[in-house]
Amino acid sequence: MAHDHHHADTHKHGDDHNHNHNHNHPDTDIDWAEMAGHLESQAELFAPLYESALSWLGKEVTEPGLIVDVGSGPGVVSCLFAEVFPGARVLAVDGSEPLLDRALARAERLGVADRFGVLAGELPNALDELDYPADLLWAGHSLHHLGDQRAALTAFAERLAPGGTLAILEGGLPSRFLPRDIGIGRPGLQARLDALQEEWFAQMRAELPGSVAETEDWPTLLSSVGLKYARTRSFLIDLPAPASDRARAYAVEVFARFRDTLTDDLHAEDRATLDRLLDPADPASLHRRPDLFVLGARTVHTAVRPA
């Protein structure tokens, strides 16, 4: 389910990951289908990072028969799995049928549809419908959208074949797009936006059904559900200035979501700065400035079900 685990980027479905709601609003449900385009553009931009992560996984997960992408969204990363592991069948699992429709269409376009399936249903219960245990189960920024994360990890682990690997994408660093001092407004804008996103994330977690507070020590949690050989590695996305058109468009999407979701809590000066950054006619805007970049880190934690 859709960045940096809860910062400027959309974090479900592979990157991470911002949400299209004000964090003071009582309803923290996220309309994933409405965010489909943003989810796809982020995952496509971050493809080099995901390819590095999948290559790392492939060094220990050799020739998997079934790969399950839990919270797959529109299937950008699911299809990468199908390309990186040509002998595997890939199953994309998500609660949003419109996003799974996009995943199927992507698999068709990429020529991997014969090894690609989808399963719609709420997580983690949807995994009860699996016909076979998974050799690799991937949860890319989806776990933190489930109220009881330890129970979800237990369910994930139970769906692994003996010797199978669970890989979760959680944590990392907030992405950066601009220098600390951008020449307008008060320096340090992104750090202040991060702080507001942290508050939104805490409220989102607290309001999930069956929410359980959990220390986010992922290797320890993986061990607690009976998995072994926990490993952790982070992967970098580094797209330096000057930004490509795709990177620039993505940055505009991210900052537009900041403005839409955090407006009520922003200082007036920061609000004015965001408005200027998003004004295509302003020479200091994201649309024009030469110093725009994309820099971020994503962290993958893995563990193995004992054979």
What do these coordinates show?
This protein has 307 residues and is α/β, with parallel strands linked by helices. Helix content is 35%, strand content 20%. It has 9 helices and 8 strands. The chain has helices at residues 36-45, 47-58, 76-84, 97-110, 149-158, 189-206, 218-224, 245-262, 268-277; strands spanning 66-70, 89-94, 116-120, 134-140, 160-169, 173-176, 228-239, 294-304. Strands 1, 2, 3, 4, 5, 6, 7 and 8 form an 8-stranded mixed β-sheet that branches. Strand 1 (66-70), helix 3 (76-84) and strand 2 form a beta-alpha-beta unit. Helix 1 (36-45) crosses helix 8 and helix 8 runs antiparallel to helix 9 (268-277). The radius of gyration is 19 Å and the shape is globular. The chain starts with 35 loop residues before the first helix and ends with a strand. Mean pLDDT is 88; it is low at 1-28.
